[in-house]
Design brief:
The complex is a heterodimer of chains A (911) and B (99). With 911 residues, chain A is an alpha+beta fold. Chain A has 28 helices and 26 strands. In chain A, helix 12 runs parallel beside helix 15. The radius of gyration of chain A is 37 Å and the shape is globular. In chain B, a hairpin with a 5-residue loop joins strand 2 and strand 3. The chains are: A alpha+beta (911), B alpha+beta (99).
């Protein structure tokens, strides 16, 4: 009697059997009255009438019957849920929160990890990388791009020398196209006189045709645009077209200046295309050949022929029928030959990079690698919350089902099948979880946006597109259904497992007590809730401690009241000496501004996850070719840097105004550097070289150790060179200015802008932030975790507490009679309280024990997210267990007190 | 109602129910298969009868129906309704009483 899908076919075949039997019986009758069998069968078939019409009628009855049953179930469920509005609304709200949170995380994960690129046949796309077994390969002397650690040892990277790209292009049977691209970074974009900063991407001529993208307007880049000397064209992003040009087709043909170099806009990409890397959406695409013009360094042309300069990213489209493995095998050989030939000595020949390909259907995975682990942790957390909410609702349903025993017994005795009643109870559960899911969509919409904002540190560098689409709707529906069944099935089964006769005669007094069965389903659920809550609270405590530890790390300088901003005058056409003069002049002007106590500049911000490491030549220490030898972290600083940042100098002097072009190259090193390379001696006066064989830099001072790029890492050896001395070939083109202000740093932002505009009108002031903001943005993940996990933990604790309270309250009310008898027989009140509390303590202890064991078992999973505290830190564990225990006792004490206040007489009369 | 009444005597399959009704009405009522089987399934869907697959005297698999408790209640209700209706019609159709 069920409407389950697969049973339709069974019923159809049953109906056929029934009809067949009828025909046979009819035929048999006629045969008995003397007719031949054949005639009898014919006659009985005729007599039967229209078989197919009959089958149609019966099927229609089945459909109507199941629809009517469904509406009955829904109406019945509606009445039941309405009669207890508090429970219903609490259940729906907690489900909405749990389902919404899960959907939000899934939505973000989908955008980052799962969604395919909106191109033709994304399954055919392949990203090329290389891998080594142990360490960074020595043949890679210049690397412009990321290095990833391979689990199990070695590094991998998607960057290749340009010649390798050409080699692959001429040499392949596996790919129908191979195209190249490279992030050009954030450049100054000037359109119609308006300047802004945006991401730009270099692409090869066949980039768009290889991906299979159509233009929304105009045309996309082609191979002919890549020929040196052809007019410079660019293609812009659809969203940028809409924002900046209001989607006006006359944008085609207009000029856009990138770092002051004019390009003609040739077309607009399709609306859904946002680049090949989830999380970074270039606004403009320009041909690869322009790479030369935009980089003034002498390495410009050499980049395309240097076999040791790894920078270009390559993607390919496999020919139909060719597998990734085959493509990899085909190109591995030539690549190996190439890198072997580029190795200069035996040392470089060990651990050469080997070709490695990965599927490219969902784009480049830089953001994915960054966020996938944190997202998994968050996903676990929200799954736990949903589990706790479901356990809670299941428990409440359980207690209610015990109260409905009589009603269910009556229905069963009237002939309803167990399955029918079970289905009706499940329908009730779904009537809780489906509305919860719909509300949850609203929660998810908010949650997705907040999550992306949190994960990207509040900046909008990460342009993730995540919104509610059909995939998310399906996910929500599935979770809602699953949740409804999960929390509904056990109570429903429990409810229908009723012995009819005793249940019909049942009164409160005679309802079976669970004395014999100490571990009932209800208790198990409470223990489960406590376990899950413990995990969440422990996680929250660990993350909060991590954050506190990070906040208390000694930075080494004073980050308060420091206004920082970035200037890149190259974008307005300044070059070489002009550049330096401008920056020096601005440095002076800033110092003189009212409200500015001190001012300086540097080539990179401190403690911003920026890193610049170079090879060192220290006389007396053997030098290695490539990456094996002594290295130092580097930052170029202007005069008064140490005074402005309040970074103490331990020995000697700091960089000052005498350290200019032409004067002997001076450097200040930190104590770690001194200890490492000049142990047991004063390094003042000693000389060393950077990226060369000549020791021409003199150490003039030693600074106290200060954090360089992150709060978490150990302080590396740091060299502070003079910004205006050009110790390295190729001067820095941009500068970060740091101003120590008297009041709130942002109050000076306008003044600074005006000053820059007065001195150099076309130079934009970008990235205005305080030093504390910069430092905070490096610990975004830890902060996110601490915030979210605390919120989750509080939520979990509340739900678990309510669950415990509800269970105990119900248990007490069911045993009112028994308690009344005991008290009438002389038991004191405190003994009653003890009786209830004993059960509460037993549940709490059980839950905590299981929780602690689980936490112990999973500690390695969150080790990498912690700082300064171990996952099994005894103090934290003790603390957390104590808090949880106290909260649970509190939750259970109210029913215990109520139990003790029961008047024996009214209890005995209580039915 | 007729089906329910027939099943009061014990479980029976569709063919047997048709024969029983025919016989007990002395051949006056012959129910069409096209009405009998839909009626049986409707009664089953409403929970007034339940079914079981048993081996019939033809040594074949047949679907036997039997009354449920709800069905018995329904039968009683319908019988009293029926009796009421018969009385009412009889009243209307009664020859006028001689005064």
């Amino acid at each position: 009697m069920d409407w389950h899908f697969w049973q339709w076919r069974q019923r159809d075949s049953d109906l056929n059997d029934e009809i067949a039997h009828d025909l046979a019986a009819e035929a048999e009758e006629r045969v008995r009255s003397g007719i031949s069998r054949e005639e009898a069968e014919l006659a009985s078939r005729r007599d039967f009438g229209n078989v197919s019409l009959l089958k149609e009628d019966v099927r229609e009855i089945w459909i109507w019957a199941s629809l009517e049953r469904l509406s009955q179930d829904v109406r019945y469920g509606w009445r039941t849920l309405r009669s207890n509005l508090l429970f219903t609304s609490m259940a729906i709200v907690s489900l909405a929160l749990g389902i919404g949170a899960n959907t939000a995380i899934y939505g973000v994960m989908d955008a980052i990890m799962l969604r395919a690129l909106p191109v033709k046949n994304p399954g055919e796309l392949v990203i090329l990388n290389w891998r080594t077994k142990n360490r960074e390969p020595d043949v890679v002397r210049d690397h412009n791009g990321p290095n990833y650690a391979v689990p199990g040892g070695g590094v991998e990277s998607p960057d290749f020398p340009w010649q390798v790209y050409e080699l692959f292009r001429n040499h392949n049977n596996s790919f129908s196209t191979l195209f190249a691209y490279k992030d050009a970074g954030r450049l100054n974009l000037i359109v119609n006189g308006q300047a802004e900063v945006g991401s730009v991407e270099f692409v090869s001529g066949n980039f768009f045709s290889g991906l299979g993208i159509n233009p929304a307007a105009g045309r996309l880049l082609a191979d002919s645009d890549n020929v040196a000397g052809s007019s410079q064209v660019a293609v812009i992003n659809f969203d940028y077209w809409r924002q900046r040009f209001n989607a006006d087709p006359s944008a085609i043909g207009q000029t856009i200046k990138l770092d002051n170099i004019p390009f003609t806009i040739a077309g607009v990409t399709a609306p859904e295309f946002h680049g090949v890397s989830a999380g970074s959406a270039p606004l403009v695409y320009i041909p690869m050949s322009n790479r030369l013009a935009l980089f003034n360094r002498s390495e410009g042309k050499a980049m395309f022929i240097d076999p040791h300069n790894y920078w270009v990213d390559i993607m390919g489209r496999l020919r139909p029928g060719v597998t990734l493995a085959r493509a990899e095998t085909e190109l591995s050989g030539p690549f190996h030959v190439y890198v072997l030939a580029s190795a200069a000595n035996d040392k470089e020949r060990t651990d050469l990079p080997a070709l490695w390909m990965q599927e490219g259907g969902s784009g480049v995975d830089s953001v994915r690698r960054l966020l996938s682990k944190p997202l998994l942790v968050l996903m676990t957390m929200v799954a736990l919350i949903l589990a706790i909410a479901c356990a809670n609702i299941a428990n409440l349903l359980l207690s209610r089902s015990v109260a409905r025993r009589r009603e269910i017994a009556v229905r069963l005795s009237l002939g309803a099948s167990r399955l029918r009643v079970l289905r009706q109870l499940l329908t009730e559960s779904l009537m809780l979880s489906l509305p919860g899911g719909i509300l949850g969509l609203g929660v998810a919409a908010v949650g997705i946006h907040s999550l992306i904002w949190l994960l990207s540190g509040g900046e909008d560098r990460m342009s993730l597109r995540a919104g509610i689409d059909w995939r998310i709707l399906v996910f929500t529906l599935c979770i809602a259904l699953a949740a409804g069944i999960v929390f509904g099935i056990a109570p429903a089964i429990q409810a229908t497992r009723v012995d009819i006769t005793p249940a019909l005669k049942e009164t409160r007094a005679s309802s079976p007590r669970r004395r014999g069965r100490f571990i009932g389903l209800s208790q198990l659920l409470v223990v489960a809730q406590i376990t899950l809550s413990l995990l969440l609270v422990l996680g929250a405590a660990l993350f909060v401690r991590t954050l506190a530890n990070l906040h208390s790390v000694e930075v080494g300088f004073n980050p308060e009241h420091l206004l920082t901003f970035s200037l890149d005058a190259r974008q307005a056409g300044y070059k070489d000496a002009q550049l330096q003069t401008l920056y020096a002049r601005l440095d002076e002007q800033f110092r003189a501004l009212p409200g500015v106590r001190a001012a300086t500049l540097s080539d990179m911000p401190l403690v911003a996850n920026w890193n610049s490491r170079v090879g060192l030549y220290v006389p007396g220490i053997p030098k290695h070719e490539g990456r094996g030898g002594p290295r130092t972290s580097l930052v170029m600083v202007g005069p008064m840097f140490f005074e402005t940042m309040q970074l103490p100098i331990a020995l000697g002097r700091s960089i000052n105004t005498h350290d200019v072009d032409g004067a002997p190259l001076a450097a200040v090193v930190n104590q770690a550097f001194a200890k490492k390379y000049f142990p047991n001696q004063s390094p003042i006066g000693r000389q060393f070289g950077i990226n060369s064989n000549v020791a021409n830099i003199t150490i003039v001072g030693v600074a106290k150790d200060a954090r360089y790029s992150s709060l978490k890492d150990e302080v590396p050896p740091v060299t502070y060179l003079a910004y205006f001395q050009n110790a390295l070939k190729g001067q820095p083109g941009s500068a970060i200015f740091e101003l120590r202000t008297a009041a709130d740093p942002f109050t000076l932002a306008q003044t600074v802008r005006k000053a820059v505009h007065a001195a150099a009108p076309r130079v934009p002031v970008t990235d205005i932030r305080t030093q504390t903001q910069i430092i905070d943005s490096t610990i975004t993940q830890e902060r996110t975790f601490a915030d979210l996990c605390t919120a989750f933990a509080v939520l979990a604790l509340v739900i678990a507490g309510v669950g415990l309270y509800g269970t105990m309250a119900y248990a007490v009310s069911r045993r009112t009679n028994e308690i009344g008898i005991r008290m009438a027989l002389g038991a004191e009140r405190y003994r009653i309280v003890a009786m209830v509390l004993r059960e509460v303590i037993a549940l709490a202890v059980a839950g905590l024990a299981v929780g602690l064991i689980t936490a112990w078992g999973t500690q390695s999973a969150i080790k990498s997210f912690l700082f300064g505290v171990k996952a099994a830190d005894p103090l934290t564990v003790l603390w957390v267990s104590g808090i949880l225990f106290a909260a649970l006792i509190l939750a259970g004490s109210a029913p215990a007190r109520r139990a003790s206040r029961i008047e024996p007489l009214s209890a005995l009369r209580h039915e | 109602m007729l089906i329910l009444r027939t099943l009061q005597w014990g479980p029976q399959h569709g063919h047997g129910i048709g024969i029983a009704i025919r016989q007990s009405s002395a051949e006056l009522l012959q129910i069409e298969r096209g009405s009998l089987y839909p009626a049986l399934h409707r009664l089953e869907a409403r929970g007034l009868i339940s079914s079981e697959w048993k081996s019939s005297d033809l040594n074949r698999r047949a679907k036997y129906y039997k009354l449920t408790a709800a069905g018995k209640q329904q039968l009683v209700a319908e019988q009293s309704k029926w009796k009421l209706m018969v009385k009412a019609i009889a009243r209307v159709m009664r020859p006028a009483k001689a005064d």
